Predict the structure of Cupin domain-containing protein.
Amino acid sequence: MTLKTFPAVQADPGVTRQVLSESPELMVVSFRFAHEGAEGKLHDHPHIQSTYVESGRFRFSLGGEEFEIGPGDSFVIPSGVRHGCVCLEPGRLIDTFTPRRDDFL
């Protein structure tokens, strides 16, 4: 097995995205939020997503409900549910997607 390195790309203003690993069935992605107020804009997709907060604080919107999360928190976003976040303290989210997000490659 060969480890492939993926470049970090700008996802939104103040947010970089880097694929950490991928296969057709699963993808792991790092999202770095550089400053307070940086946003992961509201969106939805057919993939099931799990989000883990490595560092920072975030206010998430998930299916119309809002909540705050911090280091060590994680949750699952079902397929098709509208979601997004606002950075309250700079940090990093680790997201997994099943199946892989081909639009990130």
